[in-house]
Amino acid sequence: MHYALPYKTKQFFFVLIKLSIVVGAFYFIYQKLLNNDILSFTDFSDFLTKNNVFSTKTILFLLFLTGFNWFFEILKWKILVSSIKKITFKNALEQSLGSLTASLFTPNRIGEYGAKAIYYRSNFSKRIMLINLMSNMLQMTVTTVFGIIGFCFYILKYDPEINHYKLARFLVFVVLAIVLLSFGLTKSKFTIKGFSVEKIKRFIFQYSKNRLILGFTFSMIRYFIFSFQFYALLVIFETNLNYFDAMVIITSMYLLSSIIPSIFIFDAIIKGSVAVYLFTPTGINELIILSIITIVWLLNFVLPSFFGSYYVLNFNLPKHED
Q: Transmembrane ranges (predicted)?
């Protein structure tokens, strides 16, 4: 015998889920700030207070960069998703910030895929997840291209100690894994979320090239913005590192930290560890680098997630006639 829950009970559980997401996100932010293994919140706040480098003008400038960073991310999502459903900039804003909050504490932000898909009817879900995958791949492509260039310059300039045997063995393993995986996928009926590999390839290759070019362009603009924001903080802390040398390290940092699997809430910890290693030859105080990493994380992820929590709490499932 089928028993349906009363409408009010469903609504209660729905509100409870939304509250749980917001509380979970805030709890992980709290844990990250208060129980950070590489930079305690006390040291961080004392360091900022002692240096007193943030004027009103400086704070507004950093917030301006954060706003533009997310503006282009939201615009990219609006352009990419419009291939299957036209949405307004306001809709894209709600979906981008809401999914950020919902995915903040999930491994590698994987929760973002489901969070964005839930804004659409079920018959759109799979395509929305594929578009989100393409969006992330575009950003990762930019990070990889500039990161490889930057890391090559880093090796030439600083000649870091690298175990070439282990590196070569790792690269061989990665190449073999990619080849075997590609061969296996083409020879099997492997499916991802109900989509066969052939259907995924067809979807990507038939996708609007103009939208992909726009998406890639917005990904590049975002990359330049948040990279420059990192450099601006180096200048604010008076590190006396010129723009080119700083970008060599910053691009290398984003490359190395992006290929390390992590729970997104600990992304700042991973970037902090990588950044400290990469900035060591410059002689810059470790506390400055860790503080900058934390500030960038607060500006670009924690602050937007506060706005995103509003959208999570006010979220309603899409109507049938949507």
A: 12-33, 53-72, 130-156, 168-186, 212-237, 243-266, 287-313
